[in-house]
Amino acid sequence: MDAIVTAGGIPQPDEPLYAYSNGDSKALIEVAGKPMIQWVLDALSDAKQVDNVIVIGLSPKSGLKCKKPLYYLSNQGRMLANIVAGVNKSLELNKNNQYVLIVSSDIPALKGEMVDWLISVCMQTNDDLYYGVCTREVMEKRFPGSKRSYTKLKDVEVCGADINVTHVRMATEHLDLWEQLIGNRKNSLRQASLIGLDTFFQVLTRSISLDDLVQKVSQRIGIKGRVIVWPYAEACMDVDKPNQLEIMGADLARQQRKAAAPVKKTVKSKPAKKAAAKTVKKKAAKAKPAAKKPVSKVKAKRK
After folding, report:
1. Long-range pairs, 221-224, Cβ under 8 A, ≥24
2. CB-based burial of residue 197 (10 Å sphere; 0-12 exposed, 13-18 middle, 19+ buried)?
3. CA 9/CA 78 separation, integer angstroms
4. Is there a domain that residue 284 lies in?
């Protein structure tokens, strides 16, 4: 499966990460010694089920590295247009492709095994769109203090993942509605209002379950959708604010130190070695039977 990485966003002066971007792409903001997007590319490199990687919004001049074939497309101006361009490039590489990964460049904690997990779970069915979520419990256990925004439903509180799987035909159908949904992706209530006032009211009053919400959304849009509940918070931990950037920097730096730390071998000191050797000798001596002394024969004197 090909992965489309969206990296066209440039923070504006009124946005939280503007001071960290130096007028460049958000994807290139440094996190623990690497551009944010490089961590994502490392994960895609390690994923066994990823074939090609298509980066939208950057150029080869960015100096990024990837073990998989890497392609660049210019920013098309809008997120939906970027996704459509990425899908078209994937079909150009292989006309038989049916599904693609849509990956945000701002989830640097993502790992290769997590990407493979998502693809394996999604490919068990033949739906049009697989949308991932994380529960509040999973997020706050892994990243306490991340200040994520949650949608409160009847049975659970969730936030959205930033890596999802979609059928390639989704890039050419329902474009007007998709444009509105993507434009309001940070506001779940506005998204709900776009798909019906009844759904909006049910989300607002927490009277609808996650499964029922997915079913209503799918019917409204006219697709077969499936929600994927992530056991990994990393897929939902995007970097939008300075405190999230700080959390990710500390977390990834800690992982780097742990990976670089030498494996400590237990070395016995010389006195300890001598003591151990004496113990072994004593045990060996006890285990070995004592040798019998030879009995000397004395001839009896004849009278």
Report:
1. 221/174, 221/177, 221/195, 222/174, 223/127, 223/128, 223/129, 223/170, 223/174, 224/126, 224/127, 224/128, 224/129
2. exposed
3. 9
4. no
Q: pTM above the 0.85 mark? A: no
CB 53 within 8 A of CB 155: no
Assess if residue 301 is contained within a domain.
no
CA distance 290 to 145: 72
**In sequence order, what are the residues at sequence separation of 6 or more whose Cβ sits closer than 8 angstroms to the Cβ of residue 244?**
146, 147, 237, 238
CA distances from 64 to 59, 61, 108 (A): 9, 8, 14
The count of structural domains within the chain is 1
Which carries the bigger pLDDT value, residue 181 or residue 115? 115
What does the alpha-carbon distance between residue 218 and residue 239 come to, in Å, rounded to a whole number? Answer: 28
Query: Which CATH number covers residue 70?
Result: 3.90.550.10
The DSSP bridge partners found for residue 4 are 54, 102
- The residues facing 199 across adjacent strands are none
- In terms of phi and psi (left: phi > 0; alpha: psi -120 to 50; beta: otherwise), the region of 63 is left
pLDDT at 6 over 80: yes
Looking up tokens 């958000």 gives 26
Closest to 40 (Cα-Cα) out of 234, 262, 292, 198: 234
* Residues spanned by the domain of 133: 2-260
Tokens of 297: 């024969």
Residue 249, domain member (yes or no): yes
Q: Are 108 and 10 in contact (CB under 8 A)?
A: no
pLDDT one-digit tens code per residue, 181-219: 665 555 555 566 566 667 666 777 778 888 888 888 788
Residue 288 domain flag: no
